[in-house]
Amino acid sequence: MVDEKSLEELKKKALSEIKEAEDEKGLEAARVKFLGRKGELTRILKSIAQLPPELKPVIGRLANQIKKELEAALKEAQQELKKKKESRLPGVDLTLPGRPYPLGKLHPITQVMTELCEIFLRMGFSIATGPEVELDYYNFEALNIPPDHPARDMQATFYLTDKVLLRTHTSPIQIRTMEREKPPLRIIAPGKVYRCDSDVTHTPMFHQIEGLMVDRDVSFADLKGVLSVFAREIFGEETRVRFRPSYFPFTEPSVEMDISCVICGGEGCRVCGQTGWLEILGAGMVHPNVFRAVGYDPEQWVGFAFGLGVERITMLKFGIDDIRLFYENHLRFLEQF
Ligand code: PHE
Questions:
Q1: What is the pLDDT of residue 283?
Q2: Protein residue with its CA nearest to atom 7 in ligand 1
Q3: Contact 167, 194 (CB under 8 A)
Q4: What is the pTM of this model?
């Protein structure tokens, strides 16, 4: 038999189903379920006639009141749905997730450049910079390369005038820094450099990081130590290094550093030309003439310097075989790093 309590419960259930209906179909289902011809409330209303006389008025009034409330709730819910539908723009579903924006990233050269700088920063070097349009004096003369010296042929130079050029290496930064600052000194000079060269391993513009350490008792052992640590940090713990005699006008003695081939591990392959070794940088003890040019006393100060090409390191690190890919700006290439 119906009582007030079960009627109230029925009302609660009906109201919550109306509220939860997501569309017109759901709303209609709720209406039929409670107010339809065989609906739960309709059935109760029909059965009131059989109730004992003293209950009839109470239950009858309550049931009719609930019926009105439910009808009002249905109407309101219908209007809500209509409003929601109208607020949608034609053909646009605002409930869809947004289109993701492609995330940009740093160019592989920038990434490796940063990584290289961080390695030297951790070893106590600080960063120095300088102009890309440089005087012949800083690019060559102060580095112990006088005019007409055959060593100038080592770097095919873009001249702007007789005395002004695009720097061919970042070594002029070292001269400028030494002119400005007193030793001891520990700097790296990262930046763009320019040479009149273009093939699978050369672009007219590329990046270098050069380093310079000057103190009273710097030795060749320090050079080997710093560069060995650097090689292992960038190419992995198992990397071996070797130093071969070489020539640069601004260092004496001069060396070239090789690392065990990153592709074959030293067995010999196409990349290392079957030698098991890859040349990665030039270095040496600073030539006394370079110290004289900046006013350092070569009897009191010693130093080592090194210079490396960032493109070459990046190519070896990622197994890239054509340097020009870095500057063609194809996203399919760049997105891989
Ligand atoms: N400046 C040299 C170059 O660009 C690299 C180098 C720097 C070599 C310092 C020795 C010492 O080729």
A1: 98
A2: 307
A3: yes
A4: 0.71
